[in-house]
Amino acid sequence: MSFKAEYIWIDGTEPTAKLRSKTKILGDEDKGAELPIWGFDGSSTNQAKGHASDRVLKPVFTCPDPIRGGDHVLVLCEVLNIDMTPHESNTRAVLAEVAERFADQAPIFGIEQEYTFFDGARPLGFPAGGFPAPQGGYYCGVGADEIFGRDVVEAHLENCLKAGLTISGINAEVMPGQWEFQVGPLSPLEVADQLWVARWLLYRTAEDFNISATLDPKPVKGDWNGAGAHTNFSTQAMREGYDAIITACEALGEGSKPMDHVKNYGAGIDDRLTGLHETAPWNEYSYGVSDRGASVRIPWQVEKDGKGYIEDRRPNANVDPYVVTRLITDTCCSALEK
Ligand code: ADP
Ligand code: MN
Ligand code: MN
Ligand code: MN
Ligand code: MN
Q1: Which residue did the predictor score with more confidence, 133 or 32?
Q2: Is the ipTM, as predicted for this complex, more than 0.95?
Q3: How does pLDDT run across 68-79, given as a tens digit for each residue?
Q4: Residue 127 has what DSSP assignment?
Q5: Radius of gyration of the chain from Cα atoms?
Q6: How does pLDDT run across 247-293, given as a tens digit for each residue?
Q7: Ligand 1 within 6 A of 182 CB?
Q8: Between β-strands 167-172 and 287-289, what pairing exists: parallel, antiparallel or unpaired?
Q9: pLDDT class for 6, splitting at 50, 70, 90?
Q10: CB 59, CB 30: distance < 8 Å
Q11: At 153, is the secondary structure helix, strand, or coil?
């Protein structure tokens, strides 16, 4: 029996890459085997010029397809040039090297993906031509006056779990129509691969409800929370002692590190990291226990236990998880290695 493999990849759209996918019909001989490489028209995805348009899709992560069910699969791919070198848009290949270099420190990540549903041009729950009641009651709310899109959120969660993704939870966010799911804790490559697949499932699930989802970091200007991707991080040493927690927090603040990180934490970061709405200003690095106004938060439980993990609160919802996990692994593991 043949089965359908949905080949998913990350395109070259600037400044924020988009997900693309197309279906390949595979046969019995491909079941349980390494799936074949495939190709696509890179000139339609900002990944090639028309006169030399072929790009290669190399499968890197496969899971059950919860939308189609049966033996059908989702296949996340890396983009390669036709000489099999990584394409310049391929940030996974760069992460793979860094993850390998620091694997002995056992870095793991949990990423909190915030996003916003839109019904046409309006955030879901926003009345036509106006605004809903100000923020305050929506975060983790219940009831039809506070919650918009729960049926989609539940369907997405169910799909992620059926796909075998490591989701640690979901919650309604501060702005109406805004939600969060968390992926992890997992190794750098695993968390980033799974987050990309969970994003694809979010768009695909919402599509069937005629609703769109966006990772826009500031979907509504003014006194409305933006959408982030808080990135929780630990190494073996951080899970065992507090000195390593402080070393990691200090390393993230050293020299040019704050700017090196922030400029790669998602397009439009200065619109979101204003110092208001539970954010630190984008151009000032700080860390603190329990402080949701700091760049990096040490959870109170971590201070109490004297070990655990830290939360980098700066990444935008539209951050590339291959990039944020690479930067944090590189900066913190280099400092911890000394
Ligand atoms: P918040 O209070 O910031 O909303 P969440 O519960 O949404 O926190 O997210 C916490 C995240 O931290 C989860 O994704 C979880 O998997 C992750 N996490 C827990 N322990 C660790 C750890 N030791 N290292 C890295 N991430 C961790
Ligand atoms: Mn064609
Ligand atoms: Mn959270
Ligand atoms: Mn949140
Ligand atoms: Mn958080």
Answers
A1: 133
A2: yes
A3: 999 999 999 999
A4: P
A5: 20
A6: 999 999 999 999 999 999 999 999 999 888 888 898 999 999 999 89
A7: yes
A8: unpaired
A9: very high
A10: no
A11: helix
CA distance 245 to 45: 41
Q: Give the Cα separation of 285 and 207 in Å (integer).
A: 39
- Does residue 45 contact residue 147 with C-beta atoms inside 8 Å? no
Q: Which atom of ligand 1 is least distant from the CA of 234?
A: 24
- How far apart are the CA of 40 and the centre of ligand 2, in A? 9
CA dist., res. 321 & res. 92, Å (int): 9
Counting ligands in written order, which one lies closest to the CA of residue 309?
1
CA atoms within 13 A on the CB side of 47: 28
- From the CA of 110, give the closest atom in ligand 1: 14
The answer to whether the CB of 239 is under 6 A from ligand 1 is yes
The residue written with tokens 């940030």 in the block is 91
DSSP-H helix ranges across 85-177: 91-101, 150-162
Torsion angle in degrees (nearest 10) through CA of 294, 295, 299, 305: -110
Q: Which residue's alpha carbon is nearest to atom 18 within ligand 1?
A: 110
